[in-house]
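User: Here's a structure from my thesis project, written as structure tokens. My advisor, Dr. K., wants to see whether a designed sequence matches the one we expressed. Can you design one independently, without my sequence as a hint?
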């Protein structure tokens, strides 16, 4: 059974969401603020975190910052009444994987939870298949219709990340923080160069394309 940590200070909403998740055979632990969530997180293995932003003692942003210092891969879904682009940008910049604005649709929430868990499974298995394209993380290889190419490490990591989260926008800063050491001399233009090379290599790929979102970042679109 997969374990989900639900962090929400609204008792009615947390009870509703927990009930629906348990109906789908998930095990749910509930915290009403970020401090309680950290205590649970430090003492139990979780497969996914769902968190509000505005909470007493420690808000969702503080919780995400803590979690990402410990675990860079666990999926995190924000559900919040804060709907501004600045709040969404901050959430994604800290490392959340998805963002829903309240009032939430429970059916959509379940779809997003399952999608995030599928992506996490891909990362754990270290292989990703999209149509006739297969990415092998250990071999840094991309096979498209039986033709295999080995990519430089950073190019492969960026491509694997984008394709693991299709239609999700990643900023240059997010990609830099994930794949480059904090003391690197490289800057965000390095990301532009890698994206440009990937786009050249896969411009005729029938299964996906890399799209630039002006003033925001990049995303992968499946065909």
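Assistant: Designed independently from the structure alone:
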């Amino acid at each position: 059974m997969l374990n989900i940590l639900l962090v929400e200070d609204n008792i009615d909403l947390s009870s509703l969401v927990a009930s629906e998740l348990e109906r789908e055979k998930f095990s749910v632990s509930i915290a009403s603020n970020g401090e309680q969530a950290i205590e649970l997180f430090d003492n139990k293995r979780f497969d996914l975190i769902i968190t509000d932003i505005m909470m007493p003692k420690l808000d969702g942003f503080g919780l995400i910052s803590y979690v990402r210092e410990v675990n860079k891969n666990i999926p995190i879904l924000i559900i919040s009444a804060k709907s501004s682009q600045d709040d969404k940008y901050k959430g994604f910049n800290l490392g959340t994987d998805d963002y829903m604005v309240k009032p939430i649709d429970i059916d959509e929430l379940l779809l997003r939870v399952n999608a995030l868990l599928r992506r996490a499974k891909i990362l754990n298995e270290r292989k990703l298949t999209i149509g006739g394209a297969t990415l092998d993380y250990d071999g840094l290889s991309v096979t498209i219709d039986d033709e295999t190419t080995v990519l430089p490490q950073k190019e492969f990591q960026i491509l694997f990340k984008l394709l693991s989260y299709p239609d999700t926008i990643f900023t240059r800063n997010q990609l830099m923080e994930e794949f480059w050491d904090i003391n690197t001399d490289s800057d965000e233009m390095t990301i532009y160069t890698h994206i440009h090379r990937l786009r050249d290599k896969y411009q005729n790929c029938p299964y996906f394309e890399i799209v630039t979102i002006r003033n925001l970042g990049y995303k992968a679109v499946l065909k």
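When you compare it with your expressed construct, this may help: Residues 89 and 157 are 22 Å apart (CA to CA).
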